[in-house]
Amino acid sequence: MSKxxxxxxxxxxxxxxxxxxxxxxxxxxxxxxxxIIGISCSPRKGKTTATAIQVALDAAKSFNPNVxxxxxxxxxxxxxxxxxxxxxxxxxxxxxxxxxxLKNANLGGIIIGSPVYFRxxxxxxxxxxxxxxxxxxxxxxxxxxxxxxxxxxxxRNGGQELVIQQIQxxxxxxxxxxxxxxxxxxxxxxxxxxxxxDILKDEFGIGSANKLGLRVAEASLxxxxxx
Length: 227
What we know:
The chain is of the alpha/beta class and 227 residues long. It has a single domain (34-83, 90-226), classed as Flavodoxin domain (Rossmann fold). The protein is built from six helices and six strands. The protein has helices at 2-24, 48-63, 99-102, 123-131, 160-172, 203-226; strands spanning 34-40, 67-73, 107-115, 146-153, 177-178, 189-192. Strands 1, 2, 3, 4, 5 and 6 form a six-stranded parallel sheet that branches. Helix 2 crosses helix 6 (203-226). The longest helix is centred in the C-terminal third of the chain and has 24 residues, at 203-226.
């Protein structure tokens, strides 16, 4: 049993290290590329929220060859909420591996997704948003970044727009530029998990994710060209 636990911990650590290594590469530093990252805040790694985020990222990438995208799936990661600093104690968990993406000089946009739990965002999403506080001082690093939001619920009207609004409100504290999608997804992308985790069968929801990705790419490039 201890060997299995040790192996799982090793694989998790190795995955986090690989993620941090990828983020540290300067592949976005040349040719004027604009980076858009997708953050899947579901504890279920690789499931419906991650799929929806990937759909939005693919749409963003298709918008313009100057857009590059990266997926960050928080499923399986250990991220605790904000804690007051304690002298001599360093707060370390898997959030540290995500910071290089968020601090990338060519970051132009972010697409954040969360499942709906009791008409609220996931606790993982709440913890992630709380930890973004480190990007507010001494400088607002996420200011003027285009931010789009999507949510996946168990019902068509299961609280998706409430979750989108919750995340958008948090990102306004960073002076981010909140964008929605095109018609049919003005507030963000809303998806319905009604086919046993095959979210691609939700044609309306997938369409809204596509529209959101296109809008985030459009806004990111416009902002990037003005700065």
